[in-house]
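Bug: C-alpha cell stream looks shifted between consecutive jobs. Job 1:
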Amino acid sequence: MLRHNLVSIGANCKIVVDYVPLPVGMVGPLTLNGQSVYIPMATMEGCLVPSTNRRCKAITQGSGATSVILQDGITRAPCVGMNSAKEAAELKL
C-alpha cells in the first residue's frame, strides 16, 4: 500500500511501488561566490553532515569559495579521474 498521495506527485515516475525515506541534513552557511548558502545533503552516513559543516565553516571563515560552471548536463558515460582540478580543466579544453 502506498503511503503517499500520487496525485500530489504528478506523472514524473512511472510504475511507482513505494517510497524510501532518506534523512536530509543541512550544512552551512557556506560563502560561495560572495553569497551565504545552505546546502541540503541526503545521506545515511552519520558523520558526513557534521564533517561537511566543519569544512563549510572553515571555508567561510577564510575568504570563501568561488565556483564556475563549465557546462550543465547529465551523462551516462564513464567519468575520468584526474589528479587536480587544473588537470581536469586542461583536459576539458
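Job 2, same session, no restart:
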Amino acid sequence: MALRGVVWAALWCAALVGEASAFHADILMPNVSVPHDEAYLATYIKLPENAAYILGFEPLIEEGRSILYGWAMDAPALKLPKGHGFPVGNLTDIHYIAIQVHYMFKLKDKDTSGIRLLLGT
C-alpha cells in the first residue's frame, strides 16, 4: 500500500516544532462489522489543511475492548518529546493517514475504535 510507505518515511524524520497550536484529528473505524476471526480492516482520513506535524498518538477504544497499538497489546498513548514532531500535511507529500486494525476475533457489535492524532502547525 503506497500510503503506508509514505507515512513510514515521515515517521523517521522528526522535526523541532512548537506546541502552542496543538489540536487533534481522529481516525476511527467507520462502525465496521467484523465478519470473522483474523480480520484486517483499514480506513483513512485526509489531514486537516493546517496540519504540519504529528506530535503524538492516543488509542481510542470502545469500553471493554483491547487494542493493538504500536505493536503492543494495551500500549499507552505516545507523545513525542516537547518541541518535536513528524512532518506531514503541507510540509510534505503526506496528506492522508491510514490505519489498519487486526481483529483477532469476530465481534458481536460494530466497532468504532481508532487513533487520535495529536497535531500541530
